[in-house]
């Protein structure tokens, strides 16, 4: 018989990949989506099944993790074998602007799910995955970070997730629940939110290459992250819930890269060589050369003149804007996922170059489409003109 899963945050990056993955494994998948003033299901539209026609195995419920009754009702309705709690206000910088909301959704939201499962008498049936994060390590106390490294969160987001991490363990120990934390390091993809750093860079690179944008404004270029591909990481989530015993696992690649290096690699993947000079807010990145053959292959022959002209006349493509700095920064993340690799048999398929290739080919394609729409398509740019 098919298993039933409930995914909170199903409209997000990980939720979308996980929903597709579980459907392919014959699960019945329920997802919680928020009401929004515009459609917010773009990442999962390809999974849509018409309720009037099909017998559905992908079912969406309106909901919000800040609403206990809603969370309880949805869990009661779907009686899930597995809950993947991926919903969160997940942007670290934004959590400094909305700290109370972040605590409510990311911290108490997890408690609401655990408590609903307990009160509904589903403790013996429902397994729970909590989306914990390498942001817990914050001001890192050890390099690389393992399941045993002490936490030192550095943002309202990190602190909210610390509560969620411990309440998950507490319910496991207090009530014997199958509740586990995946401590996932940064993972990205072509459907990563546009304001996270990798997507911002890959998207801006495509726009600069196509002549749609002049410059990429960045915050701290020196912080380092351990970046993997979301497609690999959602498989770890599933594996964690297939174990006989609940437990907590670090999921990471074990390779760390600075933001500056990520920019160099992203432009290089499309044939453009960047050189950085200057310090702090005066630092700039200039295009200094380009590989015409690679550029033509990745971006297009017809855009080569534009890049030649940028190199000759206006080579600065990266600048620093201190508005993107965070009040407290997480400088270095690098994970040791030995436990997951040995006990779960998990290993990533993508390395950083593979991830970048996947992201840039998607963004170049998307930005070409966007340029096409703006140059004569239907999109209205100014409503009162
Ligand atoms: P994401 O793309 O930002 O998706 C977050 C999802 O949560 C979206 O579906 C969002 O809905 C939903 N959401 C936000 N607030 C909600 C609320 N109050 N009630 C219900 N749903 C809400 O994040 P992601 O990258 O997929 O990450 C998934 C989870 O893993 C998050 O909990 C994140 O904190 C955690 N995590 C991510 C990473 C990473 O590198 N990606 C690493 C470690 C941990 P809308 O679509 O309506 O906004
Ligand atoms: N977003 C962003 N925008 N980050 C920038 C920028 C910029 O313009 N310039 C520099 N950065 C730096 C940030 O200061 C940070 O050091 C790093 O790039 C990564 O930022 P994000 O991509 O926003 O990710 P994050 O590491 O803060 O958080 C992500 O990963 C966590 C796991 O470690 C999110 O997905 C979290 O939800 C997740 O828990």
Helix and strand topology:
Blueprint: E1 4-8, H1 13-24, E2 28-33, E3 58-62, H2 68-78, E4 82-85, H3 92-97, H4 99-119, E5 127-133, H5 156-175, E6 178-184, E7 187-188, H6 197-209, E8 216-218, E9 224-225, E10 228-229, H7 230-242, E11 248-251, E12 257-258, H8 259-269, E13 272-277, E14 284-290, H9 292-298, H10 304-313, E15 316-320, H11 338-344, H12 352-374
Parallel strand pairs: 1-2, 1-4, 2-3, 4-5, 5-6, 6-11, 7-10, 8-15
Antiparallel strand pairs: 9-12, 13-14, 14-15
NADP nicotinamide-adenine-dinucleotide phosphate binds at residues 8-9, 11-15, 32, 34, 36, 40, 64-66, 86-90, 105, 131, 133, 184, 186-187, 193.
Q: Top keywords for this entry?
A:
single chain, 385 residues, alpha/beta, Rossmann fold, 40% helix, globular, binds NADP nicotinamide-adenine-dinucleotide phosphate, binds guanosine-5'-diphosphate-alpha-D-mannose
């Amino acid at each position: 018989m098919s298993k039933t899963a409930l995914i909170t945050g199903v409209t997000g990056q990980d939720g979308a990949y996980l929903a597709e993955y579980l459907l392919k494994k014959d699960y019945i998948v329920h997802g919680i989506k928020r009401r929004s003033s515009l459609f917010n299901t773009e990442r999962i539209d390809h999974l849509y099944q018409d309720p009037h026609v099909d017998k559905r195995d992908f079912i969406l419920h309106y909901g919000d993790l800040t609403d206990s009754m809603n969370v309880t009702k949805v869990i009661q309705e779907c009686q899930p074998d597995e809950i993947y709690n991926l919903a969160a206000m997940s942007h670290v910088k934004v959590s400094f602007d909305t700290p109370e909301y972040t605590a409510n959704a990311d911290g108490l939201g997890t408690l609401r799910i655990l408590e609903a499962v307990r009160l509904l008498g589903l403790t013996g049936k429902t397994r729970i995955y909590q989306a914990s994060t390498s942001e817990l390590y914050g001001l890192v106390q050890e390099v690389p970070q393992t399941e045993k490294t002490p936490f030192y969160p550095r943002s309202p987001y990190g602190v909210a997730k610390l509560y969620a991490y411990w309440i998950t363990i507490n319910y496991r120990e207090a009530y014997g629940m199958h509740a586990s934390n995946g401590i996932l390091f940064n993972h990205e993809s072509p459907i990563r939110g546009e304001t996270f750093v990798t997507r911002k860079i890959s998207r801006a690179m495509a726009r600069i290459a196509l002549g749609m944008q002049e410059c990429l404004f960045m915050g701290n270029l020196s912080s380092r992250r351990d970046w993997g591909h979301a497609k690999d990481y959602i498989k770890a989530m599933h594996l964690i819930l297939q174990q006989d015993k609940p437990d907590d696992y670090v999921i990471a690649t074990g390779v760390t890269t600075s933001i500056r290096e990520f920019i160099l690699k992203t432009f290089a993947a499309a044939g453009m060589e960047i050189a950085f000079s200057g310090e702090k807010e005066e630092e700039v990145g200039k295009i200094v050369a380009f590989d015409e053959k690679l550029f033509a292959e990745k971006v297009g022959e017809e855009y080569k003149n534009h890049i030649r002209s940028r190199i000759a006349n206006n080579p600065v493509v990266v600048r620093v804007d201190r508005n993107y700095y965070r009040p407290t920064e997480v400088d270095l993340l690098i994970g040791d996922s030995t436990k997951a690799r040995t006990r779960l048999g998990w290993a990533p398929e993508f390395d950083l170059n593979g991830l970048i290739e996947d992201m840039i080919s998607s963004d170049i394609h998307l930005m070409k489409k966007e340029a096409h729409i703006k140059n004569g398509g239907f999109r209205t740019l100014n409503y009162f003109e």
